[in-house]
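hey so u asked for the seq, here:
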Amino acid sequence: MKQFLTASIMGFFGAFATLISFSFHLPSWVLFLAWISYYLFGKSVKSAIQILLPLTCGILMGITIQLFGGGLSDYLGNFGFPIAVFIWITSLSYFSKIKRLENIPAWFIGLIIFFGLHPKIEIKPMIIIFITIISGFVFAYLNDTMTRLVLKNKHN
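ran it, structure tokens below
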């Protein structure tokens, strides 16, 4: 019964998250990537907030790679973009030494989100990305909280 309850809660929040993302034209895969990040990086509001900074830096790095790679491609052809990736990913080793930026997987999740979406580098698409990421964290938090409450009440 316990497994059925936890599975049902997860199914409910997954379905509700999908409904919300479809209704507001948010990329559902980004929402679920943020959801799983909540679980991977600590299952707390504090860890979600802490992970948002390196994840954001990964998105900013993606923007920088795209702009820098485009500029280099004007001079180096097909080698421009790979060289930009090499330079910026190499720099990640140094950026990750900075306090609160040390989570390299979160940087890469930001890069995955940016390059997976291929958004225009404008304010509105960036806002939509962050609304989606935060929504994923919220749904994960709600799922985790509700599951813990149900399991706690089930034991009493």
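The helical segments are 2-23, 28-40, 45-76, 80-95, 104-117, 123-155. Residues 147 and 153 are 10 Å apart (CA to CA).
lmk if thats what u needed
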